[in-house]
Amino acid sequence: MEMGLAGKRVLITGASKGIGLACARAFAAEGSVLHLASRDAARLAEARAQILATAQVEVAVHPIDLSRPGSAQALVAACGAVDVLVNNAGAIPGGSIEVIDEARWRDAWDLKVFGYINLTREVLPAMMRRGSGVIVNVIGLAGAKPSFDYICGATGNAALMAFTKGVGAGATNRGVRVLGVNPTATRTDRIITLTKARAKTALGDESRWEELLTNMPFGRIAEAEEVADLVVYCASDRASYLSGTVIDIDGGQLYR
Q: Is 34 helix (H, G, I), strand (E, B) or coil?
């Protein structure tokens, strides 16, 4: 299926591993020009090498901490004009409100919640002046299905869902689409770490983490490539009437 993404300039945050890296590979397969951002310079270099080994595309890497003031402006200045922004960077810790103190809460939101908002603020005006562009926010199912033991993430994701819907509804007046995807538990280092923490609390043994995932749809967690395929579709011409919406990629988990 022709996605119309060849030659499109795509900026992906949190791109050195997990869903972000899977998105980078998927856009590379479509012939997009890639800008990959992450705090981990070494992993970024590895990601670039992996992509160039399988696809003949341009790949620029940007080691940067998007929780820092001014980082969004610096990143966009380094990238130049982008056609697609995939907001994906974020690592919100698990735990109840009794466990996540104010400092950790603010640190987590500086990267994910304000990181998404600040990058959107930087790229959206230029997209609207051109009359084209797509922003895809990778958010998380906890925003639609909040839980006591992931309250910081659930609250942040809910905020980003509202942000996505509101901005996406208005951006279409200037030819720009903004939408989001809510992945369920996905096979990434981060999810495994979070689930191990839950297993230590619930079962007294972090090595039993897989026992907490046996009730997932289809009997498994999602794969990063499945999320990436949806992100690429949402960014493509094939989804040209999608904006101001958030799609749950959860195998129906929300209603189980």
A: strand
Between CA 142 and CA 156 the distance in angstroms is 9
* Phi-psi group of 146: left, alpha or beta (phi > 0 → left; psi -120 to 50 → alpha; rest → beta): beta
**pLDDT 10s digits, 90-129:** 989 888 999 999 999 999 999 999 999 999 999 999 999 9
Q: Are 100 and 164 in contact (CB under 8 A)?
A: no
Q: How many domains does the chain have?
A: 1
Q: Which range of residues forms the domain containing residue 51? A: 9-187+222-251
Which of 96, 104, 35 minimizes the C-alpha distance to 67? 104
CA distance 229 to 236: 11
Q: How far is 214 from 110, CA to CA, in rounded Å?
A: 33
Residue type, 68: R
For residue 62, give the 3-state DSSP assignment. strand
